């Protein structure tokens, strides 16, 4: 060891205090390798283990520290704290007596005794007669394993049974909450987490899991608040920092997201997922070299990381001698791959073979990847058939309960850019947000979040409910406007909610982007979408049927709201860019600005699959790319409606 024992201990303590736990662990481990019974290193390793919840593993370290130097009061305090956390109160009292017999006296002994009394009160009174608060670690581990394997119902059932014997177990409530979340029982999950926190207000894991639940619901501010609460009780919670980064990234706060990921990495230097996400953020910012560096770092830490391989493939143009090709091919051959990893690697290989000009292999891997993705999402086109029918049936109620333009006033105007995914909506947003009076907010989930139940009639459609939607949506949007008069919402599938938008936000501008039908459907089929809400994309028949549902719905909306919808053809835009751009800007009641003709110079971040294309000058011909694969489609697109 290059450092002396004392120097290594000093550096370990400094790292420990700074929250750099892995670094501290390395120093303590090095000391114990040289001196296995070093009292301070053993004690500090025990404290470190308790800090990350591995309390049982801490006990041997504390015992060794006490055997070597029993005269240190802090060693006894740490040992007793750990025993109480494990509900071994009786043995903690034995240890207190042992401390006295080993020569700990006076003020120091009274300090240890006082601490034990405080801990005893903290778990509810007389420990001698109290029942253990937590099940044995072995039983808890069984539940954790069931949850990790996705057997949520089994984990919930067994956890609920154990709860009858251990009604004050915070760990059981935490597992029950997580299992309910896995089953989609969100209210029950929140109830379980709150119960855990009522028993243990500083329970970081419950706050963390509640943050995950809020994140999945799209309640991003609430999620960040919960993660920060977890960190207030457990400052070295690397996953909490990571998920704060995920939420900030979702909010478009990219620099803040990178900082959160870096904090996670400072605690866990081999956090491949954090490096992967940093790479994606740089990709969204148009910083390709930084993105490549971060993604390659993720793969150096975790060579079988399918997400990183897929993200890397998205920004690379492959040549035959690329080392990653062999890596992905070898990884793809592994028999122990999960279905999710095989799916992502299939899309990665499809991109590789497309770049190498090998359509046979491209289509083969696309077929496999899509089939796996559809199965993993458990998607059926029937669910969208039913959805679109409900949307149509709800439309008349919106026409009867709508705001009039003279009734509303707002400091900004929303611009909805909608249509089928992969129809050119990202380019249109880049063009519009190049204007000095327009803020580009990207794909926002707020219309669906606040208006989905309203749009399908699950919630009563009346003036009040429409007003509530309007207020919630505009309040969210105002936080993204950057004090500009116009702000875009480029969620393509908002086309489903046009009646709601027209009724609630009469001042809004609506741009419906259309593209060649076959090109649109092919682009949907050939891409892996991170969103789980596009299940129709992963089967050629489903893609075609969904597209036809979309066309039917838009015909109805056009008949009812033709004066509110501006139709823009993507292929016409790329063929005669200046003409159609000027017409578009005129429709928005904006003065002309030349910057709108150079969307590739727009430096705003882009979070869609089109992010590489929109960094280039507008070009035509992209809608013809699908022709290369027409021989493999067996006429799948013949039934597309125009």
Write a structural description:
This protein is mainly α. It has 30 helices and five strands. It has helices spanning 5-17, 21-34, 39-51, 55-68, 73-85, 89-101, 106-122, 137-148, 152-165, 170-182, 186-199, 204-217, 220-233, 238-250, 254-267, 272-284, 288-301, 306-315, 323-332, 339-355, 359-377, 381-400, 425-433, 446-455, 463-478, 498-504, 517-526, 540-561, 570-575, 577-587; strands at 413-418, 438-440, 486-489, 509-514, 565-569. Helix 5 (73-85) runs parallel beside helix 7, helix 12 runs parallel beside helix 14 (238-250) and helix 20 runs antiparallel to helix 21 (359-377). The longest helix is centred in the C-terminal third of the chain and has 22 residues, at 540-561. It starts with a helix and ends in a 55-residue tail after the last helix. Residues 124-131 have low confidence and may be disordered.
């Amino acid at each position: 060891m290059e450092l002396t024992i004392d120097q290594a201990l000093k550096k370990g303590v400094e790292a420990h205090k700074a929250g750099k736990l892995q670094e501290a662990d390395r120093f303590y481990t090095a000391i114990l390798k040289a001196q296995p019974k070093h009292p301070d290193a053993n004690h500090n390793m025990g404290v470190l283990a308790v800090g990350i919840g591995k309390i049982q593993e801490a006990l041997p370290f504390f015992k060794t520290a006490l055997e070597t130097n029993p005269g240190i009061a802090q060693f006894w305090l740490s040992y007793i704290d750990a025993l109480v956390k494990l509900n071994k109160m009786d043995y903690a009292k034995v240890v207190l007596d042992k401390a006295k017999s080993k020569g700990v006296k006076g003020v120091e002994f009274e300090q240890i005794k006082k601490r034990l009394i405080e801990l005893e009160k903290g778990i509810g009174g007389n420990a001698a007669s109290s029942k253990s608060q937590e099940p044995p670690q072995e039983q808890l581990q069984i539940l954790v394993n069931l949850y990790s394997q996705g057997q949520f119902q089994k984990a919930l059932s067994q956890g609920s049974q154990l709860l009858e014997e251990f009604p004050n177990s915070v760990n059981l409530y935490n597992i029950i909450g997580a299992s309910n979340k896995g089953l989609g029982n969100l209210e029950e999950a929140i109830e379980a987490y709150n119960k855990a926190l009522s028993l243990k207000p500083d329970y970081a894991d419950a706050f963390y899991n509640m943050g995950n639940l809020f994140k999945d619901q799209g309640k991003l501010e609430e999620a960040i608040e919960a993660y920060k609460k977890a960190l207030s009780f457990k400052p070295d919670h690397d996953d909490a920092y990571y998920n704060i980064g995920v939420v900030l990234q979702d909010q478009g706060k990219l620099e803040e997201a990178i900082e959160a990921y870096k904090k996670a990495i400072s605690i866990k230097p081999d956090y491949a997922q954090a490096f992967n996400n940093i790479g994606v953020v740089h990709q969204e910012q148009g910083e390709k070299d930084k993105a490549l560096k971060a993604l390659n770092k993720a793969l150096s830490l975790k060579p079988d990381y399918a997400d990183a391989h897929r993200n890397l493939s998205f920004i690379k143009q492959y040549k035959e001698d690329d080392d990653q090709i062999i890596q992905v091919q070898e990884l793809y051959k592994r028999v122990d791959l999960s279905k999710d990893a095989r799916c992502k690697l299939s899309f990665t290989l499809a991109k590789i073979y497309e770049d190498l000009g090998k359509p046979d292999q491209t289509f083969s891997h696309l077929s496999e990847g899509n089939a796996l993705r559809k199965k993993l999402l458990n998607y059926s086109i029937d669910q969208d058939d039913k959805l679109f029918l409900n949307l149509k049936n709800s439309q008349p109620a919106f026409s009867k309960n709508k705001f009039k333009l003279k009734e509303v006033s707002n400091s900004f105007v929303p611009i909805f850019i909608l249509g089928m995914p992969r129809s050119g909506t990202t380019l249109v947003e880049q063009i519009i947000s190049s204007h000095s009076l327009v803020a580009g907010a990207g794909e926002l989930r707020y219309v669906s979040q606040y208006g989905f139940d309203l749009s399908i009639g699950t919630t009563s459609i009346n003036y009040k409910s429409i007003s509530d939607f309007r207020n919630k949506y505009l309040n969210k949007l105002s936080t993204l406007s950057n004090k500009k008069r116009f702000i875009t919402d480029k969620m393509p599938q908002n086309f489903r909610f046009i009646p709601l938008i027209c009724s609630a936000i009469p001042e809004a501008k609506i741009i419906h982007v259309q593209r060649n039908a076959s090109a649109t459907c092919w682009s949907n089929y050939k891409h892996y979408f991170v969103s789980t809400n596009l299940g129709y994309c992963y089967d050629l028949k489903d893609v075609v049927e969904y597209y036809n549902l979309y066309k039917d719905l838009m015909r109805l909306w056009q008949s009812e709201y033709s004066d509110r919808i501006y139709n823009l053809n993507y292929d016409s835009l790329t063929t005669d860019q200046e003409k159609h751009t000027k017409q578009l800007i005129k429709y928005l009641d904006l003065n002309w600005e030349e910057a709108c003709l150079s969307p590739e110079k727009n430096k705003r971040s882009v979070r869609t699959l089109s992010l590489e294309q929109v960094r280039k000058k507008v070009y035509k011909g992209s809608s013809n790319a699908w022709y290369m694969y027409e021989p493999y489609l067996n006429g799948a697109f013949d039934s597309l409606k125009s």
